[in-house]
Structure formats: C-alpha cells, structure tokens
Design a protein that fits this description.
alpha+beta, 10-stranded mixed sheet, S-Me-THD_N, 7-stranded antiparallel sheet, CV3147-like fold, 356 residues, S-Me-THD-like_C, S-Me-THD_N_sf, 12 helices
C-alpha cells in the first residue's frame, strides 16, 4: 500500500481526532504532505513485518507548543539534516520513518518527511494518540533506553543529546526546543525494526485514515464518528471560556463548555497541556488521560485543536479508551493523571461514563 495525495484529507481528519487537541495543526502538515507527494511521489506504507530485523526506523515528530507551530512551520531541510545525523551516528541511512505520535500534524507530516527522504512510512507510532512530553511513548513504556535525541530547527541548528533516561530526554529536549523558539523537529528512540516489535503501536496510520473516512458523506457526521471510535459524548454545547497560555514549550489552560439542547444547564471543563488531559463536570471527573478526549465541531465532527479553541464555538466533547499499553502500571506511571500532577487515580472512561 502507498499513501497518495487522495489519502491526505482523510489522514488529516483522523490524525486531528487522535490528537486530542494537540500534535499541531493538521493543515500545515497536510499541505507539506501534498507538496512532497507531488514532488517526490507516493509514499509506501509498510508494516513492521515487511522490514528486515536490522532495518533502521527513525521516529520523527515536531516538539513544542502548537500555538507556535501554527505560525512557524517546519522547513523542507529539517528531516534531511536529522537523517544525515542518523547516518553519521549509525553508519547507514534510515530504512523507514515512523510518526512518534499519530495525533495532529505529527501524524500527517511524516508523509512529507518520508517522501522527502525517499523512504517508506511505517504503519505504526509510539502513542496511538498525542501526548505532550518526550518520554510519553510506547518505547519508553516497553523499557527501551532513551539514550539518543536528535533535533533540528528552522534555522539549521542540529543538536544531538545523549540523555541518561526518558525523563532527562524530556528536560533536555524541552530546553533545546524553547531555545529554538518553542518549535523543532525531533528524532528519538531511533531503533531497528527488530527492537520495534512489541514496543510500538502498530496499524495507527491505517486507523487514522479509517477514522477520517468515517464521516465522509455521512448524514450524521458526529454519530458516524462516535460509532467508529466507540466513543461516549460527554457534552454538546458552546465554548464560553478559554484560558490558554504558552509557557515552557507547552500550551496550558482550560476550556469551558456550557451545554445546549438536551445538555442545557450542564457545564464541562477540559484541562489541557497541549492535549486535552481531563474533563470535569460538577467536581466529578468524566474522563482522564491516558484515555482520549477530543473536542469536535458539532455539525461537521471535525476536531478542534487546542490552539483553535474560540469563544462561541458549537462543539461536542468525545472520550474513548486508549490503547491497552497505557493502562499497564508503567503506562499509567508515564502518562496517567498523576504524571500530569492531578491527584486522581486512573479510572477507565467506560467506568466513569457508565451512567451516561
């Protein structure tokens, strides 16, 4: 299978949904992907089983605040500079590119990066969604060493970091990202296909395209999306307050939705750090990380990213279960509510919403 220009709109819609508000605006990634396909040709989409065990897989993602990435987009040479550094360190070029996170632009832009480098895109990622911090990937949960990070920024700087563990990879990469203007391209957990087996979440590019196609021509786009995701609708209403700020390389804040129609009189607050992390109603948690929480336009079911939240928007909030990897003890330690400073033990979304 190959990804061609006709696949990009569906991939973008699906990645925006899986981005849970983060991962960057899909519009820039979509434009880059279409341009790269036109210039370099279709991008082969491969499974891990298609690659020899020693094939070098390079996970790539943009790191930084989505509000900044919305205006300061990646240049065409950033993936080339990262690939050159990979070849310098490993003595051979990348065999495939993988999205570090399938959510948002970080799920779409790898099509452009793979096309630019002339290598396949792996049908997998490290999250099954989007998360804000470097160590919040399946490779870290699987116990692989986080001993290399390569970063390149828009002006041409290349930084190679040799952190002692995943937490230090976040601290150091975030500092470099802030110095670069809160936006850079990053490769971390460069690994062979053999080591990737069991350490990445497979099939997520295909899944994102399927999610994006679910609403095409649908009479009830919101219903079609809910069915495809197996999601629960937390509320439908109007955005009445958005408190959003960019600090320390993240977007942080809260969004408040006042219910309309059947939900009139209800109020849901969504707290965010690049991604939507926790949804609270009347002091009770309705959904929490690592489960997915996405704000969508009520009429079109298109995802609304955190940097695009505006007063008065008519939206619905959907929530659905995460990949089982994130519900393991190590997964919850890495990306559960306490990892973000919330004093909550994780409760699956299906239990929290069983009454609704």
């Amino acid at each position: 299978m190959s990804i061609d220009e006709s696949d990009i709109p569906a991939l973008a819609r699906g990645c925006a949904i899986l981005g849970t508000g983060g991962g960057g605006d899909v519009r820039a990634g979509s434009l880059a992907a279409v341009r790269a396909i036109r210039a370099y040709g279709e991008v082969p989409l491969v499974d891990l089983a298609d690659l020899p065990g020693d094939a070098l897989v390079v996970p790539l993602s943009g790191i930084g605040a989505p509000t900044v990435g919305h205006e300061m987009i990646h240049g065409e040479d950033e993936p080339k500079r990262v690939a050159e550094e990979v070849e310098r360190l490993f003595g051979r070029p990348p065999s495939a590119i993988m999205s570090s996170e399938i959510g948002g632009s970080n799920g779409v832009a790898p099509v452009a990066w793979a096309a630019r480098l002339g290598v396949p895109l792996l049908d997998a990622d490290g999250m099954g969604r989007a998360f804000p911090e470097v160590q919040m990937v399946s490779m870290y949960v699987a116990g692989l060493p986080a001993d290399l990070v390569i970063m390149s920024d828009i002006v041409g700087n290349v930084v190679t970091i040799r952190p002692i563990d995943g937490l230090w990879s976040e601290r150091l990469a975030r500092a470099v990202c802030v110095a670069a203007g809160s936006h850079a391209l990053m490769a971390d957990y460069v690994l062979t296909a053999g080591r990737a087996r069991g350490a990445v979440i497979e099939g997520t590019v295909t899944r994102a395209i399927g999610i994006g196609r679910a609403t095409e021509g649908a009479v009830d786009p919101l219903g079609a999306l809910r069915d495809r995701l197996g999601a629960v609708r937390l509320i439908t209403g109007k955005l009445t307050d958005v408190d959003r700020r960019t600090t320390g390389g993240f977007v942080r804040g809260t969004a408040t939705i006042e219910g309309t129609g059947d939900d009139r009189g209800r109020r849901l607050t969504v707290e965010l750090q690049n991604e939507n992390l926790i949804a609270v109603e009347d002091g009770a948690v309705r959904a929490m990380v690592p489960d997915l929480i996405t704000v969508v336009d009520t009429e079109t079911a298109a995802a609304v990213q955190t940097e695009s939240l505006r007063y008065g928007q008519r939206v619905s909030v959907l929530a659905w279960p995460c990949d089982p990897l994130w519900r393991t003890p190590k997964g919850l330690e890495t990306a559960g509510p306490r990892a973000f400073g919330y004093d909550h033990d994780y409760v699956p979304v299906e239990e929290l919403t069983a009454h609704g």
